[in-house]
Amino acid sequence: MAALFVLAAIPSFAEENAPMHFFARLIPPRQDFPETMTATEQKIMGEHFAYLKQLTQEKRVIMAGPCLEPVFGAVILASGSLEEARTIMSNDPSVAQGVNTFEIQPMILSLLAHNVPAHRYPKEQSGKVIQKSITVPVSAHDAWTAWTSAEGIKSFLPIQVSIDLKVGGKYEWLFSEDAPEGQRGSEDCLILSYIPDKMLSFEWNAPPQYADQRRQRTIVVILFEEREPGQTTIDFTHHGFGVGEEWDKVHAYFENAWGSVLTRYAESVTKK
Predict the structure, then answer these.
(1) N or C: which end of the chain has fewer CB within 10 A?
(2) Which pLDDT score is estimated for 8?
(3) Rounded to whole angstroms, how far apart are CA atoms 145 and 232?
(4) How does pLDDT run across 54-87, given as a tens digit for each residue?
(5) Rg for the chain (alpha carbons), in Å?
(6) pLDDT by residue (tens digit) across 46-56?
(7) Which residues contact 164 (CB under 8 A, 6 or more apart)?
(8) What does the buried/exposed string (b/e) look like for 13-38 if buried means 16 or more CB atoms within 10 Å of the residue's CB?
(9) Distance from chain centroid for Cα 216
(10) Which is it for the CA torsion 252, 118, 75, 26, positive or negative?
(11) What is the pLDDT of residue 18?
(12) Do 171 and 202 form a contact (C-beta atoms < 8 A)?
């Protein structure tokens, strides 16, 4: 009965432009691996773990881990094609340096439990907050729409935008499409909550020059209040920064950056 249930769920995943999924089986060099790993193999397997961890953070690897009896490595990838998935696996340090081989096949990922990794947000937070406020000559509806739609963002910033307006939907500003994947902008940031014409909250990440901090998310909350017809106050808050010198630099970066963004938005609606 379980098999029939999974098969019945398959059609719901035939969404347009949905990523394809692939199951890769990493095959170890010998039956008593990893107990008999050499020092060189241990180093390579450490590189292998770091490689898959980065791909997991980029959502190109959905899950990965060792299977026992028999021993092999299981990896589920989200990719645009079988060729791309093969390239990802071929570039795995354990494969590229001759420790493991692999087999790969397409699969349909019918069921997946939602899981928010503990490391997605800084465990220790500094309490530092960025707060900005502007008043613009538009209705609350128009102001809210400008921040919750790709067309709205692009009306004041020359960037590519991907917004899926739902809780858990994408909220991505791509500042540099030519940059490597994962370094183009607010990739993998999600909408946390919203109230039409009143509030929007979403995740945000650090710029690429702060690689360690970029792996985690901070939170932006924007409130919209039309205090009189055609005059809306936008209260902007960015919080959830971690602790340490590099996180302090990220905070300082956004203290300046968000001021510039809000100024550009205000100028764009004032000119209309």
Answers:
(1) N
(2) 34
(3) 13
(4) 888 777 899 999 998 889 999 999 998 999 999 9
(5) 22
(6) 999 999 988 88
(7) 170, 171, 191
(8) eeeeeeebbbbbbbebeeeebeeebe
(9) 9
(10) positive
(11) 52
(12) yes
Other C-beta atoms closer than 10 Å to the C-beta of 94 total: 24
Residue with tokens 């432009």: 17
Q: How many angstroms separate the CA atoms of 99 and 220, rounded?
A: 44
In one-letter notation, the amino acid at residue 220 is V
Structure-block tokens of residue 67: 């299977």
Q: What residues contact residue 50 under an 8 Å CB cut-off, 6+ apart? A: none
| pLDDT score, position 12 | 40
The structure's pTM equals 0.65
Residues contacting residue 15 through CB under 8 Å, at least 6 positions apart: none
- The closest alpha carbon to 26, from 80, 84, 75, 76, belongs to 75
Sort strands 199-204 and 218-228 into parallel, antiparallel or unpaired.
antiparallel
What's residue 272's pLDDT?
Answer: 65
> How far is 156 from 263, CA to CA, in rounded Å?
10
**Ranges of the chain with pLDDT below 50:** 1-17
Question: To the nearest 5 percent, what fractions of the chain are helix, strand and coil?
Answer: 35, 30, 35
Written as six digits, the tokens of 64 are 């990965």
Which backbone phi and psi does 113 adopt, to 5 degrees?
A: -70, 140
Peptide bond into 70 cis (omega under 30): yes
For residues 187 and 179, is the Cβ–Cβ distance under 8 A? Answer: no
pLDDT in tens, 225-261: 999 999 999 999 999 999 999 999 999 999 999 999 9
CB atoms within 10 A of CB 65: 8
* AA letter at 66: P
